[in-house]
Amino acid sequence: MNEAAPSSRDRLIAAAARLFRQRGYHGAGIADILAESGAPRSSLYHHFPNGKADLGRAAAEWAGAGMLRIIDDSFANAPDYATGAATLCHKLAKFFDISDHRDGCPVSSVLYEDTEETGLRQAVDTIFEGWIAATAAHARRLGVPAEKAGEAAETLLMAIQGAWILARARRSSDVLRSIPGRLPEV
Amino acid sequence: MNEAAPSSRDRLIAAAARLFRQRGYHGAGIADILAESGAPRSSLYHHFPNGKADLGRAAAEWAGAGMLRIIDDSFANAPDYATGAATLCHKLAKFFDISDHRDGCPVSSVLYEDTEETGLRQAVDTIFEGWIAATAAHARRLGVPAEKAGEAAETLLMAIQGAWILARARRSSDVLRSIPGRLPEV
Q1: Which of B114, B128, B160 to mutate to test the interface with A (most CBs of A within 10 A)?
Q2: Of A24, A26, A169, the CB nearest to B125
């Protein structure tokens, strides 16, 4: 049991995040997530007593941590902030390409759960601010003046979210790759 | 009948767009849309024989036409492109504020309907390209060089979509108002 339990939890989370990318939070029903995960229904309420909102938060946090690793990987060996930002945009464009030019951001999809009681909106905000803070920290480390780093990071993440929407409408990652050339130099 | 029929069609479209803003395409069920519109169920399939996908397209196109009017209003009396762009961002921020800092873009929410057969993705793309083309036309009219106008317009609409997502997570329109200062001058 101790070995099996984390595994069905992880499978549920990964399945939920995958379906949120494809269909959004509301488009991915509990039955779809269970089928996609292969986990038994009993494990869902064992691991996520409040059902979909709990699972939605876990999936958003899991996907958010994945994005944080992509941010860190992009900037880790970059000689300067602009190169790291360009690498980040190219990595995300590749992710979009391998999803057959379709998938959305699983984290922002959760914003359509519009009730405050679930705390999902606040959870999404915390994830976004984490991405911005991590990007800003890389910017400062790479020599961007402290007073500009936060705004540059926020602008970059804002542009990525917006470009992702255009990319989905066009089924083309070109606009994601073009972000660095569109933003002011820092 | 001739007077009543258009009215229930319009009510269905407006109700769908309103619910897409609040809950996204998949979060707004047919029953919710009917209840919100006050229209009889029979009118739904009379006006939209293919049901939700048809209504979804009509609602996205209706909301898209509304955005086009906001774009035109913002640039109509602007002395230059930068002023028009700033007016557009401020108008959208006000719309967001009066939605209790919650509503999303009803057009982009339709992208989570992931099947190609419905043509919804292509319809969304056409709406987005219409916004970009209209903004680019204003840019050229206001003296932005033709070779820069298209990219400037695309960058502005991309930034608006991305900022809107951040604004929803934060329940604050500040990031929408701050867009003009974040983009390169054109």
Answers
A1: B114
A2: A169
**Domain range holding A84?**
53-182
Regarding pTM above 0.90, the answer is yes
| CATH assignment of the domain containing A132 | 1.10.357.10
Asked whether the beta carbons of residue B159 and residue A158 sit closer than 8 angstroms, the reply is yes
- Distance of CA A137 to CAs A153, A180, B138, Å? 9, 18, 38
Q: How far apart are the C-alpha atoms of B132 and B16, rounded to whole Å?
A: 24
The answer to whether B104 contacts A124, with C-beta atoms less than 8 Å apart, is: no
Inter-chain CB proximity A159 and B154 less than 8 Å: no
Please return the burial class of B36, using the count of CB atoms within 10 Å of its CB with bins 0-12, 13-18 and 19+.
middle
Domains: count for chain B? 1
Q: Which residues of B touch A109 (CB under 8 A)?
A: 24, 112
For residue A48, being part of any structural domain is answered with no
Instruction: Check: CB of residue A183 under 8 Å from CB of residue B184.
Output: yes
First to last CA, chain B: 52
Could you list the pLDDT tens digit for every one of the 186 residues in chain B? 455 455 899 999 999 999 999 999 999 999 999 999 999 999 999 999 988 999 999 999 999 999 999 999 999 999 999 999 999 999 999 999 999 999 999 999 999 886 777 899 999 999 999 999 999 999 999 999 999 999 999 999 999 999 999 999 999 999 999 999 999 998
Q: Which residue of A has its CA nearest to B150?
A: A182
